[in-house]
Amino acid sequence: MGDEYYDIEAILAENQKVQCTFKVDVPDMGHLAGGEDRDIKATSKLQIPMWMAYILIYSDYADFNIPHPFSSRVRNALNAEARSVKLTSLVGQGGMCLNDDPAVEMSNVLVKTFRARLTEIIDQAQHFASIGASTAGNSGDQGMAFREGLDGTERELFALAQWSVKMMKRWHESSETSKR
Amino acid sequence: MALPVSLRTSVIPQELELVACEQLVEIVPLVAMERTAFISGAYGPLRPPSKCKVPIWMAANLKMKKKCHIVPPEWLNVEYLQDRLTRETTEPQFSEMPFRFAEIAKVLLDVASDDFQNSDRLRSLLKDIREARQAKSREGLSKLDHSDLNLPNLCAIEINEIRPFFVRAMGVLTQLTKDPAGQQMTY
User: Fold this and answer.
1) At A133, is the pLDDT very low, low, confident or very high (cuts 50, 70, 90)?
2) Number of folded domains in chain A?
3) Of the candidates A45, A65, A85, which is a domain's last residue?
4) Contact check, Cβ <8 Å, A99/B165
5) What confidence tens digit (pLDDT) does each residue in B69-102 have?
């Protein structure tokens, strides 16, 4: 319990905004809309961070639309070919999913997507192990496009794999005689 | 911890090589030496031309000074490695290899390539075996689960290579699969 409360990634993920439509009037909370209104009127649309939206929705003060990264259009694209979807533009920090019925399906999609992209990540990492900086002039277009579309966590994995392979290469090419 | 971040997740191959060099290998000494105490244990006496078992680090040292000949371990020859390679390419699971074969083979082939009949052939066989095993571990990646991972017969250096990546990937999978089952919001 304590871990999740302090988990940086969870905090950042919960800070993502969700489009909500208020069902009731809320006096004196107009500053949430960023505008000059004093109160929030019913049926007005606002961007609310997830941690606040959660309470509002469960207390039935507002409704929300599923944010774009989790829409069915994106989901269909992921189902079709997970590796060609550019995740960087969609999900800022690695969105956590919602905690009700659509969530199970959502998590299945996420897991499948993750697995499909994983092999591609490690292939690319092994291929680019020898290149120190991130400039790769002679790489194929598709490889570059995939790497630009990597989500934050995927970039971490890419860096880890690349480091392992680089260490191995360096070790294999070193020799005893050169050390003595 | 004073270690750089990259070293906290995994051991580097040079460290594994150091650990592997504690293993004993047979040598034919060319000089005589009394039974001497070292930090890891007492070895010797060296009485040429009879064989003696010493740690690999010592054998490498003596060899570099031209004071011994190294006897190849029983698994480091063409027939054995060829057989293992065919097994590796035909069976879906990893074949049995000595746990630290990569490190030992590298050190011995480096310092004592003249003590082996065809060191080039051995090097290419080892490379092929390594690549075949790498391909298998890559396939295992697609079946990655968030709970357990079972890769029998994987060797020290291979485990070390995939460890940071696999552990992180499994962590992400744990987050993704556990979320809907349990409530994460701590209010």
Assistant:
1) very low
2) 2
3) A65
4) no
5) 999 999 998 999 999 999 998 988 888 888 999 9
- Indicate yes or no: CB of A115 within 8 angstroms of CB of B161: no
Whether B164 contacts chain A with CB within 8 A:
yes
Which domain CATH number covers A162? Answer: 1.20.58.2050
For A171, what's the count of Cα atoms within 13 Å in the CB-facing half-sphere? 23
Distance CA A134, CA B187 (A): 42
Distance of residue A71 Cα from the nearest chain B Cα, in angstroms: 17
User: Residue A5: which of B14, B106, B186 has the nearest Cβ?
Assistant: B186
Does B187 lie at the interface with A, CB-CB under 8 angstroms?
Answer: yes
Contact at CB, A4 and B186, closer than 8 angstroms: yes
Residues A76 and A127 occupy one common structural domain: yes
Q: What is the mean pLDDT of residues A60-68?
A: 74
Distance from CA of B86 to the nearest CA of A (A): 23
Q: Is A51 on the interface with B (CB under 8 A)?
A: yes
Interface test mutation site (partner A, options B176, B183, B186, max chain A beta carbons within 10 A):
B176
ipTM, interface predicted TM-score of the complex: 0.82
> Which architecture, in CATH terms, is B13-143+152-175?
3-Layer(aba) Sandwich (3.40)
pLDDT tier at A70, thresholds 50, 70, 90: low
pLDDT tens-place string over residues B115-173: 888 889 999 999 999 999 988 888 877 777 777 777 888 899 888 888 888 888 888 77
Which 94-113 residues of chain B touch chain A by CB within 8 A?
A: 106-107, 110-111
Q: Are residues A113 and A169 in the same domain?
A: yes
